[in-house]
Prior knowledge:
The chain is mainly α and 223 residues long. The chain contains 7 helices and 5 strands. The strands form 2 sheets. The protein has a 3-stranded antiparallel β-sheet.
Amino acid sequence: MNNSVTNTARLLGAGLRALLLLTLVTGVLYPLAVTGIAQGLFHEKANGSEVVADGRVVGSSLIGQSYDLPPAKGRQTPEADLRWFQGRPANGLGANSVNTRYELLLSGATNLSADNEELIRQVEAARAAVVEDNSVPGWTVEPSDVPADAVTSSGSGLDPDISPAYARLQVHRVAARNGLSAARVERLVEDHTEGRTLGFLGEPRVNVLELNIALKNLVAAKR
């Protein structure tokens, strides 16, 4: 009997010591080591890839955001502020989602098939809006000019980048709205076009937030 109690106590003690040791290693030392390495070697990425402008954080280079006018009375959806380059549609999770326009409570794709009538209506409406918004005196956008990323949301609905083709399509409208030459705005797009990762992964892209910050600085310098 005494041996049984002694063995049980010894096993319990060993189990508690193992629990405390593993808690210390996996719950304290390992997280501290990983956090320290991340902060030391990848400080920007570890803190959310924040983008700073005018001395304050204005967003993340990894997450898209909207560039809209203040909501008009009686309108359920805000109008795009056409002074700025616009990102991809953010229709990710459909009508029942709280993620209506780059709100970070939820993310995800619609999962609608390519022949789904609702998706077709969304794409057609988005294409018509892109054509109308970006056609300015002396420059007409044709429906065939509109790239796929201008009318479809990404898998997460939070894509921060657009294709160079969609950025160039917006050049004349942005130039006209800001009193700039189209050539100068086009150079701005070229300066902010990133190539494929490692030269072969992904597609060329333009980060909309960083492009709009550069546009803001350009407009400010003109005044």
